[in-house]
Design goal:
- Helix content is 58%, strand content 5%.
- The chain has two domains: 26-158 and 202-332, no CATH class; 345-393, no CATH class.
- The radius of gyration is 23 Å and the shape is globular.
- The protein has 14 helices and six strands.
- The protein is mainly alpha-helical.
- Strands 1-2 form a two-stranded antiparallel sheet. The protein has a two-stranded antiparallel ribbon with strand order 3-4.
- Strand 3 and strand 4 form a beta hairpin.
- The two termini are 43 Å apart.
Length: 424
């Protein structure tokens, strides 16, 4: 809203109104605004939650060998994150941008899903929350909306990067002169780093059918990525500051990708596709980072509030949709490696336990899952009747140490993700 107001005032030479034309100014503005809203509103919201006794009922001190209880800590703190994202984006963002609209819809859609889940758990005392099939339907629905919007929206285009070679050496990278709609995405570690989903249907004789099938595959991949990453972030939300810190680091990395993709010279240097209009995503992601950093003020150990599914599902979905829009979804397994490992640890644990049960054995791979809980579970807390494949390390680590080490791992993965653009 402020963008349009000051854009109008700039026509009348209003002092300073032209600053809103700069993406960097608006990006820093939303980051500061989101941070302030998250910290100031967060305090009032937490006090309100306490007065209404809207607290976590599933966690207790038994999983913390250092004796810090989690029962009674307010939950549904994800509302703080959502409000801190929406207000700055509505004030500073270009609301006619398809990319901004998609990110705001994603925030509201998954925020509503997470809120419903937390509401059922907290007020109706049903620990299962929203039934799994309804949650999947909602996530698939969002994936369909995102995929079809990117297919039909006329301003969602790219300019393909073209390598100029002399012999076997690339001497220059230029971009095609015309904008096109494309199902291309960036694939790491390959010299030809653009993968077109339509090439999977190269056996089709009709170019038109080949293109349409490529978009169908793109929409299916979008649905899968949105569902997987939002659930992965949900599993990562098990320690104070864990999900918020990791997501802020991932968001900063995606913001770098969005910025260089919107700048044709940087895109040429990195040999990636140029995405006109993606600079508006930088504004959104700065609000996202500011909201998460502000939330950490209260969510860092010992947490005064938990984000709940309201927050974790939302931030996971934001990361997924953002990566899809800038055609970097195939980098997610590297960038979101912590989320991936958390998911895999749970899947492996469940399947290994079921396999043992069928053969009359009680067995597990890790002491507890998701994997971050493995490192804070003491040996004397293990079931003596169960066989564990991995019981080390012998020491029990403090929750804050595990959280910071997971942050460090995510920073390392973020650096590797950026480096993949040059390693081919």
């Amino acid at each position: 809203m402020l963008y349009y107001l000051f854009n109008w005032l700039d026509k009348y030479d209003f002092p300073g109104a032209g600053m809103f034309a700069y993406t960097s100014f608006r990006a820093l503005g939303v980051a500061i605004c989101a941070l302030l809203i998250s910290t100031i509103f967060g305090n009032k919201f937490i006090n309100m939650l306490k007065s209404k006794q809207i607290s976590e009922t599933q966690r207790d001190a038994t999983v913390d060998p250092f004796g810090v209880g989690k029962k009674g800590v307010p939950t549904m703190g994800g509302i703080i994150i959502i409000v801190s994202i929406l207000i700055p984006c509505l004030l500073f963002g270009k609301l006619h941008s398809t990319y901004m609209i998609l990110m705001l819809v994603t925030t509201c859609w998954l925020g509503a899903l997470g809120f419903a889940d937390d509401y059922i758990k907290t007020f109706r005392k049903n620990k299962d929350g929203v039934k799994g099939r309804f949650k999947i339907v909602a996530q698939v629905g969002l994936g369909l909306i995102v995929g079809l919007t990117l297919y039909y929206a006329p301003d969602v285009v790219i300019r393909e990067n073209i390598e100029i070679e002399q012999g076997d050496k690339v001497v220059n990278v230029v971009h095609a002169p015309k904008n096109i709609k494309s199902t291309q995405t960036t694939i790491p570690f390959f010299k030809e780093n653009n993968l077109d989903y339509s090439e999977a249907f190269g056996w089709l004789d009709s170019p038109e059918w080949k293109r349409k099938c490529g978009w169908i595959l793109f929409v299916l991949i979008t649905i899968f990525v949105v569902t997987a990453v939002s659930n992965g972030a949900n599993l990562n939300d098990g320690m104070d500051g864990m999900a918020a810190g990791n997501s802020a680091i991932i968001g900063a990395t995606l913001g770098i990708f969005a910025y260089v993709s919107s700048h044709i010279e940087f895109a040429s240097y990195l040999n990636i596709m140029f995405i006109p209009g993606s600079e508006e995503l930088v504004v959104f992601i700065c609000a996202f980072i500011g909201a998460l950093v502000g939330f950490l003020w209260y969510n860092s150990y010992p947490a005064q509030v938990f984000m709940g599914d309201t927050g974790s599902l939302t931030i996971g979905g934001i990361i997924a949709v953002f990566a899809i829009i800038i055609h970097k979804e195939l980098l997610i397994p590297i960038l979101c490696g912590v989320f991936l490992v958390e998911n895999l640890s749970v899947i492996m644990q469940v399947e290994y336990f079921k396999w043992g049960k069928r053969h009359g054995r009680k067995q597990r791979i890790f002491k507890r899952t998701p994997i971050h809980d493995h490192f804070r579970t003491a040996q004397n807390a293990l079931d003596p009747a169960c066989r564990y494949l991995v019981t080390g390390p012998k020491n029990v680590y403090h929750e804050s140490k595990i959280t910071v080490r997971f942050w460090i791992i995510t920073i390392l993965l973020a650096a590797i993700t950026i480096i993949t653009l040059k390693i081919r």
